[in-house]
Amino acid sequence: MSEPVLVVQYLKKKYGDFEAVRGISFRVSQGEIFGLLGPNGAGKTQSISMMTGLFPPTSGQVHICGLDLSQDTNAAKRKVGLVPQELALYPTLSARENLMFFGRIYGLRGKELRQRVSAMLEVVQLTDRADDAVEKYSGGMKRRVNIAAGLLHEPEILFLDEPTVGVDPQSRNAIFESVEALNRTGTSIVYTTHYMEEAERLCHRVAIIDEGKIIALDTPSGLIQSLGGGVIQVGLDDGAVQGPLGEFGTERQAGVPGKRVLQVVEQVSDLASVKAASLSDGLLKIEAHRAQEALIGVLEITNQLDVRITMLQILEPNLEGVFLHLTGKKLRE
Ligand SMILES: Nc1ncnc2c1ncn2[C@@H]1O[C@H](COP(=O)(O)OP(=O)(O)OP(=O)(O)O)[C@@H](O)[C@H]1O
Ligand SMILES: [Mg+2]
Fold it and tell me: Most buried of 4, 118, 143, 292, CB within 10 angstroms?
């Protein structure tokens, strides 16, 4: 992988006091499939909109193939293809007619236009339905027409914003195959999703985005390896943190752990199978060298100290686990 096709530096979007995007930076190399993985409202669409020149950032810079998007706007935009989250097609026209229309907007004409439309229908696997009215298509097929539309002018870099949301499994596969086929021909891709399986399967590198910030960026396997030997989360209750009145009727601040819970944390930290253990809000988070062994140790210690386990979670070695580990939240609530 060589020259960056996209360089994003300290990109921010503010609405009054609210920061939808809080200073994100990354580079995408030529030929890379780069994922932006994050939950609803993380700032994926806002980021993509600024990277494709739909609206300017509050601050920060975007370079596309070396062109500054805020200076050489038109030249930079010509290198970009965008498949937005919201669909925009003429329902009564066929897929081919829709694409002919979009192609003309991009300045394509005549034979070149017809050939390009046919080729892109092929890429998204819609050739056999190309002349049916779009209103008769499934949601997934409409989305594939949108993808074809984003490709008509042969962009260097294609931005796909959650292209598989609300899509049937057949179209989903067709979309994956299109993305992979395009990438083989050298098109760089930025792909947003909140489905971790997609990021894992498709993307060479993934930025995990939450509340407008990139909280981790690596290859899927690198991110997963960051979980190490596994992460275990254990909810602990020794009866001392229930309500404002504690064990001996003395007033306790809600959320302050009891003595026996603290003993558990201390003893678990000392286990040879445990790399690190920390407690927050009654939740013990354990980074293990060896998850199985650590789990057995935890159970012995909580038993001995008579501390009740209210919740137990072993994070799977996948991107969902990584997200949960980093944010304490699930990707899909
Ligand atoms: N025009 C706007 N004015 C104020 N806030 C906005 C505006 N557009 C988006 N936001 C806020 O910016 C944040 C990021 O929104 P964005 O659409 O980028 O999220 P997303 O990651 O694309 O989510 P989803 O997965 O639901 O598409 C959200 O909190 C959203 O409410
Ligand atoms: Mg979005």
Answer: 143
**CATH architecture for the domain at 231-316:** 2-Layer Sandwich (3.30)
pLDDT tens across 88-137, in order?
A: 899 999 999 999 999 998 889 999 999 999 999 999 999 999 999 999 99
Q: Which ligand 1 atom sits nearest the alpha carbon of residue 42?
A: 21
Instruction: Quote the pLDDT of residue 245.
Output: 46
CA of 304 to the centre of ligand 1 (A): 48
Cβ atoms < 10 Å from Cβ of 22: 16
Residue 313 CB-density burial (10 A; 0-12 exposed, 13-18 middle, 19+ buried): middle
46 Cα–ligand 2 center, Å: 7
The pair of three-digit structure tokens given for residue 224, joined into one six-digit string: 């997963």
Q: Looking at ligand 1, which residue's alpha carbon is closest to its atom 2?
A: 15
The stretch 17-27 carries a mean pLDDT of 98
Angle (CA) 77-78-82 rounded to 5° is 65
Between the CA of 43 and the centroid of ligand 1 the distance, in Å, is: 6
Q: From the CB of residue 307, how many other CB atoms can be counted at a distance below 10 Å?
A: 21
Q: Residues near ligand 1 with C-beta < 6 Å?
A: 15, 20, 38, 40-46, 85, 162, 194
Domain range list for the chain: 4-222, 231-316
| Residue having the nearest C-alpha atom to atom 29 of ligand 1 | 41
Distance between Cα 150 and ligand 1 center (Å):
22
For residue 194, which atom of ligand 1 is closest to its CA? 25
Please give the model's pTM, rounded to 2 decimal places: 0.82
- How many CB atoms neighbour CB 119 within 10 A? 14
Q: Do 4-222 and 231-316 come out as alike in CATH topology? A: no
In this predicted model, what pLDDT tens digit does every residue of 43-78 receive, in sequence order? Answer: 999 999 999 999 999 999 999 999 999 999 999 999
Counting residues of the chain whose pLDDT is more than 90, the rounded percentage is 74
- pLDDT tier, 246 (very low <50, low <70, confident <90, very high otherwise): very low
> Is the domain defined by 4-222 classed in CATH 3.40.50.300?
yes
